[in-house]
Amino acid sequence: MTVDAFQLYGTRLVETPPVRLRAGKLGADLANGNLRTIRYDGIELLRAVSYLVRDRDWGTYSPEIVDLRIEQSDDRFAVAYRARCEGPDDTRLVIDVRITGSADRLDFEAEAITETGFETNRCGFCILHPIVGVAGSPATVEHVDGRIVATRFPDLIEPWQPFKDMRAITHEVMPDVQAECRMEGDTFEMEDQRNWSDASYKTYVRPLALPWPYEIAANRPVRQKTSLVIRDISDSTRHPPGVSGGAIKLELGARTGTMPDIGVIITPEEADATLLAKSVLSEIAPQELLFHFDPGAGHGIDALRRFAAIATVHGGRSTLEIALPCKSSPASETSEIARQMQLAEFKPDAIMISPLVDRQSTPPGSTWPDCPPLDEVYAAVRAAFPGIRIGGGMLSYFTELNRKRVPDGQLDFVSHCTNPIVHAADDLSVMQTLEALPFITRSVRAIYGDKPYRIGPSTIPMRQNPYGSRTMDNPVGARIPMANRDPRHNGRFAEAFALGYAIRVLDADLECLTLSALSGPFGLIAGPAEPTEQGGRRPLFNTVRTLSRLAGASWQECVFSSPSEVLSFVARDAGGARLHVVNLTGEERKVDCGACRPADAGKELLLAPFATAALPLAD
Description:
Layout: H1 5-9, E1 19-23, E2 26-31, E3 34-40, E4 43-54, E5 64-73, E6 76-86, E7 92-102, E8 105-113, E9 118-120, E10 122-129, E11 138-143, E12 148-152, E13 163-174, E14 177-184, E15 188-192, E16 201-205, E17 214-216, E18 222-232, E19 248-258, E20 261-266, H2 271-276, H3 278-284, E21 288-293, H4 301-314, E22 317-324, H5 330-344, E23 350-355, H6 374-384, E24 389-397, H7 398-403, E25 413-417, H8 427-432, H9 437-448, E26 453-455, H10 492-504, E27 512-517, H11 540-550, E28 554-560, E29 566-573, E30 576-583, E31 589-592, E32 604-607, E33 612-616
Parallel strand pairs: 19-31, 20-21, 20-27, 21-22, 22-23, 23-24, 24-25, 25-26, 26-27
Antiparallel strand pairs: 1-2, 2-3, 3-4, 4-10, 5-6, 6-7, 7-8, 8-18, 9-17, 10-16, 11-12, 11-13, 13-14, 13-15, 14-18, 15-16, 19-28, 28-29, 29-30, 30-33, 31-32
């Protein structure tokens, strides 16, 4: 089946397929000059080894690659190229790269040099270990001073770096096979990238406690090397789990629960467009409207009046999400917002409050910004809004909630967001972030117990950048990290991603899940200049409407033979039981769902790229 790239990805810019490199049992994919999915005997050892250059806002440069040479034989491969980065004020950086691989070793060497001087937040290697099958497992870390420490990869998500001053890390990837990753040329440390919903542990160069941005001096080469050494004492060839007989198998699991309510976020900037699309809002019928209010951005009584009008049309519950400026006392600021709400006749059912300064991240080694004690903030909200449910947490991501754990004694619920393009924006990395979501929700539950828990808004485009001064503009619809617009939001990719997201957080027992706005760059309906398949409705509309209709229904887990490719669950309500299935890949997938007892005679389901399906089940 051939599907137009625009329908899938919202753009006709197609990713260049990787070059498959192989040396005996060792394999890797070469993409944009870096290595992905490094595997041995079919098992993923490392998710990536990349040489990255970041700007002062932690944006990632996309260097021009020239003089690319690739040599391959049965037991060896070699890659060489030069990469060029163009910085502000006519600054330039050139990186010479050499990659070699044999049956039991991989070396990635790079030398960076600039004739002009070059400002960067980070320049060097990032090594990604996968999380599935690795989290909580033993590891050995060699430090730069020669000490060797036996430890484990974190299970619950570490807010700070689990390992510092690293020279090498070794872990067992399968029985009788160990992989040692050795880093030379600087001091490395590891962060738990699951904080940002990346499906990896990241070992990176230059400790974050050092100042950034920093300057690479002119005409002074910066040399680094990463080596992967494999020690295999086994005498057999393994076959990775996954697809069996050409079809992915689904079976019913034991875990059950209740589907969460679905929210839609509305900003003052999109309030008028939302009112114009009130019939679409009624069709979706979300249980919750999440209204964003930021006095520091000029939001005031006019915005609250628009919110009141939308809430009246909606007729359901609403929450006001407040970014509190904290320029004066929390009591005076919350009282003023309450006064404006009374004048606007806006009466939300809940308040989600967070100091504005907490939207920005405080990295390791940095000084925490001035902020009133959160207990004082929450007490002020309680006094200003008596009888209303109060929520706290972060308007940004789980990262910030994990690093600044809010006191929840006065809170009725906790909340945070996620974003899948903080560090990488290629299709594979974005979809892989779904693997990290169960670790995030389990970590939240470990901190806050059974406190009511909400997630969102969580969208592919980034609404606010906690790690720099801005989100990245994306006028050509490319795949770039931290972009405020992402083309895949317009395609079936987003439809599949959102359903996969909802499935991955089912175990969290969420009170509410928000995955979109109604209009705008995060919305379910497109602007007049954005062609779509359904008369202005983005494919994501289908997933959000389906999830909204399932709110309150009971769910039962499904167990998958290849959960990185297909996810599924069973929902039961007054209309019966249905099997909901989603293909997370850009290729057709055959699914054997006979064990779930679909009502029709067919046991196998052929799913188009990024397709979703709902099958009635037999009684």
